[in-house]
Amino acid sequence: MGKKKQQLYECQACGFQSAAELGKCPNCGAWGEFLELTQEQITTLKETSKSPNSKSSQNSAKSITEIEDESVERFSSNNEELDLVLGGGIVEGSLTLIGGSPGVGKSTLLLKIGGNLAKSGKNTLYVSGEESAGQIKLRAQRLDSLHKNLYLLCEINLDTILHELSLKKFDVLIVDSIQTLFSEKISSAPGSVSQVREITFELMRYAKDKNVAVFIIGHITKEGSIAGPRILEHMVDTVLYFEGDSNRELRILRGFKNRFGSTSEVGIFEMTKTGLESAKDISKKFFTRNDSQAGSAITVVMEGSRPIVLEVQALLSESTYPNPKRASTGYELNRLTMLLALLERKLDLPLNRYDVFINIAGGIKITETAADVAIVAAIISSFRNRPLSKDTIFIGEVSLIGDIRDVYQLDNRLKEAKTQHFKKAIVPSRPLEEISGIKCYAVSEVAKVIDWM
Q1: Is residue 193 domain-resident?
Q2: Is residue 414 helix, strand or coil?
Q3: DSSP for 260-309?
Q4: Which of 56, 97, 342, 355 makes the best surface tag, with the fewest CB within 10 Å?
Q5: Rounded CA gap, 174 and 148, in Å?
Q6: 256 and 395 in one domain?
Q7: What is the mean pLDDT of residues 40-50?
Q8: Cβ atoms 334, 344 nearer than 8 A
Q9: Could you tell me which residues come within 8 angstroms of residue 32 by beta carbon, excluding any fewer than 6 positions away?
């Protein structure tokens, strides 16, 4: 009896694999996306599941104290914000994935970085599968990225790209984008799960073997995640996401995975006529010092090691529906609901009859709780139609029992507020060191904030 042929089905939406064909994917919920893999594809899949540095011989376990140290060599991208997010610069032999919505500036940033690296003596290859060489050169002229060390290759065949890489020594490779390339080893269309996995594996093997830094641009889905299988994010060393509205000047580059540094840092860029530039003066981009308006409060949040002064805006209007509306832009909606319930319970405010809208000016998203007091102050200011002083900042986390908790790096926040000429601060506790020029009012519960207002 002949050996039974192995069967394997794969979801083309998320990459989930099954021994049987399923109607609905149990991983992502997509219908009718399962396709049977050929024997050649299954063989390639087994190869890509291996590490590029794996050896055929068995390795024996060693004590961790006997393992030799590996030094990480970095070089600057000549862009302060990108270096900050990457953890101090580009690591040789690293594989970096950059995702973001269309038009946010991924290609613009990497072409600018490619020009910067070329000017510093690094041979850089920019591979484009979406634009012609003429279009890229026009953008490079606008970005001042023209240099003889920057090479262009408009190609979608992976074998042709690898052959070009073998002809010349490159220090940096930029791929725009991973979903447009295809490998002849896989019979499926470009952008499919199998193609993306195979191409990423080949690029990872090239990066590690040749010690070349590789940047990959990835498209994102409607849900905001990078298109393709989840294994794509596991295979690369660094995953960066571009955030921001294409209609606004500011863009935020946030790290979600970094094997060579922290993911707490963010890079802030400004879109100018010469492309994306490091935002040199972001201190006044997210708030204004105009006449005081009801519903506006100022706070200071930490993005990594960087304090940023933000304006929190609130609007309350009487609701005509049994269930009032709660909407939030840039602030977590569940936390807003919690704060509204707290104000109703502790301060007897009839917020159940009002629609509540919260907005963080400048398009930034707050991911910490230090802005809770500012949110509360803005809501009460709008409810009472009483403006707050523009010389005052509000810092603190509000708990469910109504007290105000300490936040980390309070001194750094107050120092940033001082540089922006704020004179008063509502804080949960006194700072460790006295900061001249700004007077701090320590409050322990929400009711004390109302008394101060």
Answers
A1: yes
A2: helix
A3: TS-SS-EEEEEEETTEEEE-S--TTSS---SS--TTEEEEEEEETTEEEE
A4: 56
A5: 16
A6: no
A7: 64
A8: no
A9: 23
**Cβ neighbours around 86 below 10 Å, total:** 27
pLDDT at 57 over 60: no
pTM greater than 0.85 (yes/no): no
Given a contact cutoff of 8 angstroms between Cβ atoms, the answer to whether 103 and 153 are in contact is no
Q: Are 395 and 428 in contact (CB under 8 A)?
A: yes
Please report, as a single letter, which amino acid is at residue 268: I
Structurally, how many domains does the chain consist of? 3
Residue 290 domain-assigned (yes or no): no
Give the amino acid at 428: P
Asked whether residue 358 is assigned to any structural domain, the reply reads yes
Tokens of 202: 């080949």
How many CB atoms are closer than 10 A to CB 367?
15
Q: Are residues 176 and 309 in the same domain?
A: no
- The answer to whether the beta carbons of residues 441 and 425 sit under 8 Å apart is yes
Q: Residue 232 — φ and ψ, nearest 5°?
A: -60, -45
pLDDT in the model for residue 67:
84
**Secondary structure class of 329 (helix, strand, coil):** strand
Reading the block at residue 314, the tokens are 């609130």
pLDDT per residue over 116-130, tens digit each? Answer: 999 999 999 999 998
pLDDT tens-place string over residues 246-285: 667 788 898 989 999 888 888 888 888 777 887 766 666 7
pLDDT mean across residues, the chain: 86
**CB-based contact 426:448 (threshold 8 Å):** no
Same domain, 158 and 129: yes
Host domain of residue 317: 296-452
Q: Is the same domain home to 114 and 263?
A: yes
**Joined tokens for residue 397:** 């986390």
- pLDDT for 244 equals 75
* Nearest Cα to Cα of residue 339 among 302, 383, 304, 305: 383
Residue 326 three-state SS: strand
The predicted pLDDT at position 21 comes to: 84
Joined tokens for residue 217: 């641009």
Number of residues in the chain: 453
Quick check: 315 pLDDT over 80? yes
Q: How confident is the model at residue 54 (pLDDT cuts 50, 70, 90)?
A: very low
65 belongs to a structural domain: no
30 and 158: one domain?
Answer: no
Note whether 306 and 423 are same-domain residues. yes
Among candidates 238, 170, 243, 249, which has minimal Cα distance to 210? 170
Q: How far is CA 331 from the centre of its chain?
A: 16
Examine the pLDDT at 101 and tell me if it is beyond 60. yes
Residue 55: the pLDDT is 45
Please check whether residue 235 is in contact with residue 223, taking contact to mean a CB–CB distance below 8 angstroms.
Answer: no
